[in-house]
């Protein structure tokens, strides 16, 4: 790779050399002396028409960006800043509950981390397992629709609708129904007990398993759709080429299809992991209050029940920051910038 | 079959350790149906090892399907495929010692040029995959680009990488699916020559699918003309061009003037033909049918147009058709193409090499002359329009 880079540099250098003498001989500017009467000319030379066009494009671009910029400032930058400020508020001596005043109380961060580190770890753990599970379920679904059913638009459309259909019904309702599915008298528990995977007194409701099931289910489309979008564009002749070059179907998948779909996998895992780690509805509806508490629940209870705004803000900030770091590391490691 | 390249001659050049050169390829009554559509119809074919073989035909004639069946990307509805003495009909693509240069090259965009070329070797756990891949890239003169990605290469370079990626595996049979279709004319010419040189160097059996008759004739030592799922005629390009046996071949491979004629008699090795008020002859050996109504043919460049009454190019063995009138003239520099109307016989295409600067104007009267040894005879019930403008 480095050798190649040197070659390129050499090429560029020799090209510059070749251009050099001609340039110094004054051959560059003489052909295009502008009507404005600028003699000589150089690389920056522009006619008035060109300059006007350039300015006009600049203005139009600016105007198109302004609304989005205003929106981002009003609804992202300002709230983040006020969240940060709120997390540093102090509680004055003897003040009533929920009354705080501006300050620089960094101790709140140490406090929430020592109190709730377990919930943080659990949230990321659940989100990670749910992301992996969604990938294992979502990838084959996306592959089926995008690759195997290529050229059968009717079937493809039907299956895509089935993937998206859950979005048409209420999030809460769908999560609730998982309680029914996993209930003690339900089919799933009955079957698992029958094959002795689950002990006689075992249950699935109000367990970590149920929460992860809910997370996986709810965020599955966010995993499936980006992978589908990616695979759908893939040239199937590449798969044929793999087979033609002695790769078994599995090897072709491992060496060709999977690497080519990495941008979709990356997008899907991020779209699943980020909201899943901050989610609290699944933990509330499908978990218990001992060993399934996720950080979203903690923030909720600090904010609405304990009315401890600085703690809730500090937790939110830590969550944001932790996700930012995790995602950065992940993208650095698996980023697919080199893909065309 | 005039060409006698064989595997034994060229096997040594392919390098030690690699599977020996090419192998014979045999297709035995191959049929392929897609639903109701019959793509390939009871095809028999034998390609000796080391040949550069072209499957030529218009789109939809079944040539690509045939190629895909050889590659193992499609499976025949009926029939057998043999490579060497091995029946590979039931094997899948990755189990066959066959490689393809795909029409759009199908280079892996996520791999470097070197890794693209080494792909097949690595799958077969060849020890010195990288060194061999570099050799193959050197063969196509692209070793200096081995670290690049396919998207950074021009069309011609990608084509050569695709070729290197296939050749490096030293397959028994190498398949080329219209590999030059996406290139511009100049690059095409250049690649045609290079492909031929490389085939000569490595001595593999090349099967080249194309709809471009010029490409097929320039490159291949044997050409099979396909039409509607069947092979119309097989032979060396000169033979196919000189003596087409069907109207389709006559029209698809170059151009032909086909006209209906009556066999009026025979003298020795010659058949005498009457068409309209005119007479001509053709060698009996060049006629598919030797009595009744036949379709006679003559290539446009074999016809000489002269001013009325002027002497023709020869006396004995030449036919003179007088009373022609030039309908249209198309000057191409090297030659001039005329359409000449001959009363009672129809229109004739004439390609006249511009030996002199004289060009007949539209409406000019001309006599047409041709050497009777160049006439060929087709069955009387042939469709004279078959294969015209189907490219």
UniProtKB/TrEMBL annotation, chain A:
Q: How does it sit in the membrane?
A: Multi-pass membrane protein
Which GO biological process entries does UniProt record here?
A: transmembrane transport
Broad class of the protein's primary localization: membrane
- Every copy of the ABC transmembrane type-1 domain together lies at 120-330
Q: Which Gene3D superfamilies match?
A: MetI-like
Q: Where is this region: Disordered?
A: 1-53
Record localization: Cell membrane
Please tell me whether the keyword Cell membrane is annotated for this protein. yes
Q: Which positions carry the signal peptide feature in this UniProt record?
A: none
Quick one: a GO cellular component term?
Answer: plasma membrane
Cell membrane among keywords:
yes
Determine the domain of life of the protein's source.
Bacteria
Where does this protein have compositionally biased stretches of type Low complexity?
Answer: 12-36
Query: For this UniProt entry, which segments traverse the membrane?
Result: 60-84, 124-147, 154-173, 208-229, 256-276, 312-331
Which family, according to UniProt? Belongs to the binding-protein-dependent transport system permease family. CysTW subfamily.
- Protein name per the record: ABC transporter permease
Automatic annotation (TrEMBL), chain B:
The cellular component terms of Gene Ontology attached to this UniProt record, alphabetical and capped at eight, are: ATP-binding cassette (ABC) transporter complex
Instruction: Report the domain of life of the source organism.
Output: Bacteria
Q: Which UniProt keywords apply?
A: ATP-binding, Nucleotide-binding, Transport
Name the record gives this protein: Polyamine-transporting ATPase
Extract the InterPro entries matched here.
AAA+_ATPase, ABC_SmlMolc_Importer, ABC_transporter-like_ATP-bd, ABC_transporter-like_CS, Mo/tungstate-bd_C_term_dom, P-loop_NTPase, Transp-assoc_OB_typ2
The record's GO molecular-function terms, alphabetically, read:
ATP binding; ATP hydrolysis activity; transmembrane transporter activity
Instruction: Tell me the ranges covered by the ABC transporter domain, including all copies.
Output: 25-253
């Amino acid at each position: 790779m480095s050798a190649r880079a040197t070659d390129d540099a050499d090429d560029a250098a020799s090209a510059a050399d070749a251009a050099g003498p001609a340039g110094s001989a004054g051959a560059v500017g003489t052909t295009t002396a502008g009507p404005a009467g600028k003699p000589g000319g150089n690389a920056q030379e522009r006619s008035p028409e060109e300059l006007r066009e350039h300015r006009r494009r600049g203005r139009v671009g600016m105007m198109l960006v302004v609304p989005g910029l205003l929106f981002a400032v009003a609804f992202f930058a300002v709230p983040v800043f006020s969240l940060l400020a709120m997390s540093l508020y102090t509680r004055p001596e003897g003040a009533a509950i929920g009354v705080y005043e501006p300050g620089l109380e960094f101790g709140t961060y140490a406090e929430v981390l020592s109190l709730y580190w377990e919930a943080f770890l659990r949230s990321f753990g659940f989100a990670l397992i749910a992301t992996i599970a969604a990938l294992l379920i979502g990838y084959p679904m996306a592959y089926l629709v995008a690759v195997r059913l290529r050229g059968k638009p009717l079937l493809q459309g039907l299956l895509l609708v089935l993937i998206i259909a859950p979005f048409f019904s209420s999030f809460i309702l769908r999560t609730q129904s998982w309680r029914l599915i996993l209930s003690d008298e339900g089919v799933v528990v009955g079957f698992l007990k029958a094959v002795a995977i689950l002990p006689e007194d075992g249950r699935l409701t109000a367990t970590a398993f149920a929460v992860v099931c809910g997370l996986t289910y709810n965020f599955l489309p966010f995993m499936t759709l980006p992978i589908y979008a990616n695979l759908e564009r893939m040239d199937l002749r590449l798969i044929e080429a793999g087979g033609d070059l002695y790769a078994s179907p599995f090897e072709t998948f491992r060496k060709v299809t999977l690497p080519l779909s990495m941008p979709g996998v990356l997008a899907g895992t991020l779209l699943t992991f980020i909201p899943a780690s901050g989610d609290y509805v699944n933990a509330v509806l499908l978990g218990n209050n001992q060993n399934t508490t996720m950080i979203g629940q903690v923030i909720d209870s600090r904010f609405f029940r304990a009315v401890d705004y600085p703690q809730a803000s500090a937790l939110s900030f830590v969550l944001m920051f932790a996700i930012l770091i995790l995602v950065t590391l992940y993208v650095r490691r698996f980023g697919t910038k080199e893909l065309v | 079959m005039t060409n006698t390249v064989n595997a034994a001659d060229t096997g040594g050049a392919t390098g030690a350790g690699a599977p020996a050169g090419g192998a014979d390829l045999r297709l035995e009554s191959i049929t392929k149906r897609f639903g109701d559509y019959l793509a390939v119809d009871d095809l028999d074919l034998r390609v000796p090892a080391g040949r550069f073989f072209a499957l030529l035909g218009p789109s939809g004639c079944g040539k690509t399907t045939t190629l895909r069946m050889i590659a193992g990307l499609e499976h025949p509805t009926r029939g057998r495929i043999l490579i060497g003495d091995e029946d590979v009909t039931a094997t899948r693509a990755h189990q066959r010692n066959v490689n393809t240069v795909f029409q759009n090259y199908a280079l892996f965009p996520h791999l470097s040029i070197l890794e693209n070329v080494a792909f097949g070797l690595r799958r077969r756990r060849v020890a010195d995959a990288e060194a061999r891949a570099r050799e193959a890239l050197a063969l196509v003169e692209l070793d200096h680009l081995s670290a690049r990605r396919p998207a950074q290469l021009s069309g011609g370079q990608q084509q050569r990488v695709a070729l290197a990626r296939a050749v490096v595996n030293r397959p028994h049979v190498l398949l080329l699916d219209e590999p030059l279709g996406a290139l511009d004319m100049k690059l095409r010419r250049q690649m045609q020559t290079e492909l031929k040189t490389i085939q000569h160097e490595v001595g593999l059996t090349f099967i080249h699918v194309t709809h471009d008759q010029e490409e097929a004739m320039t490159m291949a030592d044997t050409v099979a003309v396909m039409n509607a799922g069947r092979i119309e005629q097989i032979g060396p390009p000169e033979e196919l061009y000189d003596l087409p046996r069907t109207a389709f071949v006559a029209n698809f491979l170059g151009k032909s003037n086909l006209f209906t004629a009556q066999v009026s008699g025979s003298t020795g090795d010659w058949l005498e033909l009457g068409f309209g008020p005119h007479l001509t002859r053709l060698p009996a050996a060049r006629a598919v049918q030797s009595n009744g109504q036949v379709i006679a043919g003559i290539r446009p460049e074999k016809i000489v147009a002269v001013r009325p009454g002027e002497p023709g190019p020869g006396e004995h063995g030449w036919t003179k058709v007088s009373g022609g009138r030039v309908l249209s003239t198309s000057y191409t520099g090297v030659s001039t193409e005329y359409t000449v109307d001959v009363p009672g016989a129809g229109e004739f295409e004439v390609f006249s090499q511009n030996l002199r600067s004289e060009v007949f104007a539209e409406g000019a009267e001309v006599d047409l002359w041709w050497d009777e040894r160049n006439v060929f005879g087709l069955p009387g019930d042939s469709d004279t329009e078959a294969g015209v403008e189907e490219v």
